[in-house]
Amino acid sequence: MPHDNAVTPLDGFHHWFATRAEATHYLVEEAPLDRLEGWRVDPGTGNLVHRTGRFYSVEGLAVDVREGAGRSWSQPIIVQPEIGILGLLVKKFDGVPHLLMQAKMEPGNINTLQLSPTVQATRSNYTGVHKGNPVPYLAYFTEPGRGRPLADALQSEQGSWFLGKRNRNMVVETTEDVPELEGFRWLSLAEVHALLHLDNVINMDSRSVLAACPAEPAGAAPGDVTALVSRFTAIKAARSVSRRRIPLKDVPHWHRTADRIVHDEGRFFSVLGVDVQAGDREVPRWSQPLLAPAGRGVIAMVARRRGDELRVLLRANTEAGTFDGAELGPTVRCAPANYQDGVLPEPAFLDYVLSAPGDRVLFDAVHSEEGGRFHHAENRYLVVEADDDFPYDAPDGYLWATPGEMTELVRHSHYLNVEARCLLACLHTLR
Amino acid sequence: MPHDNAVTPLDGFHHWFATRAEATHYLVEEAPLDRLEGWRVDPGTGNLVHRTGRFYSVEGLAVDVREGAGRSWSQPIIVQPEIGILGLLVKKFDGVPHLLMQAKMEPGNINTLQLSPTVQATRSNYTGVHKGNPVPYLAYFTEPGRGRPLADALQSEQGSWFLGKRNRNMVVETTEDVPELEGFRWLSLAEVHALLHLDNVINMDSRSVLAACPAEPAGAAPGDVTALVSRFTAIKAARSVSRRRIPLKDVPHWHRTADRIVHDEGRFFSVLGVDVQAGDREVPRWSQPLLAPAGRGVIAMVARRRGDELRVLLRANTEAGTFDGAELGPTVRCAPANYQDGVLPEPAFLDYVLSAPGDRVLFDAVHSEEGGRFHHAENRYLVVEADDDFPYDAPDGYLWATPGEMTELVRHSHYLNVEARCLLACLHTLR
What we know:
2 copies of one chain form a homodimer. In chain A, the strands form 5 sheets. In chain A, strands 6, 7, 8, 9, 10, 11 and 12 form a 7-stranded mixed sheet that branches. In chain A, strands 18, 19, 20, 21, 22, 23 and 24 form a 7-stranded mixed sheet that branches. In chain A, strands 2, 3, 4, 5 and 13 form a 5-stranded antiparallel sheet that branches. The first copy, chain A, is α+β, with helices and mostly antiparallel strands. The first copy, chain A, has helices at 11-23, 123-127, 139-142, 189-195, 204-210, 226-237, 350-354, 403-409, 418-427; strands spanning 26-31, 39-41, 48-50, 57-66, 71-79, 84-93, 96-105, 113-116, 119-121, 148-156, 166-173, 184-188, 240-246, 254-256, 261-263, 269-278, 285-293, 297-306, 309-317, 327-329, 332-334, 361-368, 378-385, 398-401. Chain A binds chain B through residues 81-83, 85, 142, 144, 148-154, 168, 170, 220-222, 224, 226-227, 229-231, 233-234, 236-237, 240, 242, 324, 411-414, and chain B through 81-83, 85, 142, 144, 148-154, 168, 170, 220-222, 224, 226-227, 229-231, 233-234, 236-237, 240, 242, 324, 411-414.
């Protein structure tokens, strides 16, 4: 049963969420990488691996992008070939779509608890490698006939940090009676959209799946995205990307201390270890490495109105681990701290979005990236309306798209990268 | 201007095609691999490479598929990271869609000339690496605004023979006056569909692009493929595939003679060399390796009618070089010669499609795979109607789809593999 927030919107939610936080016992402590329980550094490669060979590893990657002048670099990267499930259960109460959300602790979260989708499980989770408890509500996403899939596609995660990592993003509608287990709560789509305007409440996995949940469902006749797909295909066809896994110890400009894996100049990110104790997780105690970005990032789109229609500027992004040669990302995605010393050239449009006056800021909230792999990885999510001086034609490697077109693309794999999907979820909250 | 075949259908075409064959001067001679002009065997790896490092190479690949019992193997494979253009120009004459087809010689063709799309060019072709003549009609596919894209997506080619090879498959409609250059001819879609019933006339690249050209255009409101995409996503999510390029000399069960690269038991394929002289190609004389399959293959779908609707059984295929973890292929795809000695288990449904009585054979023609890379690579393309005993539920790893659903999927990358696309082009010719 949904909860009545009609009189004082979201008060009921906030009370429940605070109660969940009190009921959640957890302890996250940083631990040196070379003494991380269950993990070891392979002496031959320097790669950081689990002693079972499962879960994930931190290795090296050499990337070569041929387009124009071309560019090549090497970096550490998380290798996690398993495909997990991010599943959102939807049910209409009195005709109003509600989503079954979970208050979930992740060790990398800056604020411990955030709202995850109904199911957020690696393959190890739900096939029992963790030897933990069964995953609640999993059957709605794995047993045919338990619900109607509204969206179901493999989608990639952070290409800068993961090598070809993908999760199965599912939205499934059920008409069954579904009990609200402890830690889970039915929220209306409007409530979830309102919560997206608050900092660090809706977690990355939720945002990724919410990209496929517009306020007004597109209906059975999606728009024609042929012209948009054609422009994107032209960019991909001109860009040849090759990737080669290399030993982590052979990655130049990075080194390992007893505690962490770090960039020589402190840029980009480091890899650290944590020991975790948590009362309400399927495994009560474990240790794991996390990737800690260098400072809060910016994930921003420049938008332009034409009549009622909003269009946003997307960039065809090729990052180290992007599954396909390129995926469509936001206009800007970076951590400004990497550019403050003036050594690296500042990304295009960064200054433009950060210096926009308040009346042109359509969306502005801080959200966290996946706390199961990333440590305090916050990004400021911005949608900024262009002024009259902003170029009308998309620059090389960019294209304009409407939220409706993006919602059609997100039904398929590898069009929108995770940052674009997360910001699309935010766009759905705008009128 | 289109040509009038109204009285005697296709007579005009056949006369023109015979004239083209007479006007085409060519000579293809097999040449030992170790004396192939411009090519060399790398002494460290045994890989067969061009002396410039361009075009393509023959290397080794180790594949590991984790699903159920899992399977692992190694094999030689063609590595060609470049993305070429397969472009079909469409124009309506008196409201009837016509396609600009080219009579094109390829060195591996069993019958020299076949009909290619308007543009069939590797990136080396059209960016001038070959130092050959400019590619006719290229501008319609590379200059925005010269035509309206009806379909434009990267599509993969033979996963058994290529590592992640993709071409940009484009259908572009123009309203300009387009001259019919020598070797090119406007054919109506109905004529091309009729030619698909003849052996070895419509080449692989044409068939691949024709998959996006149904007899009745789908219009602006494509059907909802969410349920189908969901079933396919479930299969992909359960299948983890890892690939590793290895030196060709380290591939077990394969060896090199002075002439060829061959399997120890003569199975699967060999790699041979040819010297080519051709009067009408952009480069008049060259040498190259070709992959020669072990005997004529079978590419077949089992179909089932329900009222007016046809549904075909697709298999989620993971081959060595499949770009994504799996793509949807035909019910059966194999070379029966590999199984005649009884050492390897016969593929599912092979006997079923080959032993079907004539009244259940809906389509039957022999077509060639890409003559620029493959030597005399013929396949029998079959669509066979299921009898009442055929299982109604799709077996594990298979799914049923209508040609309309497949036509919607082919607008996007990596749903239908090249064999499924080629057979979809044939399905479009059925009423």
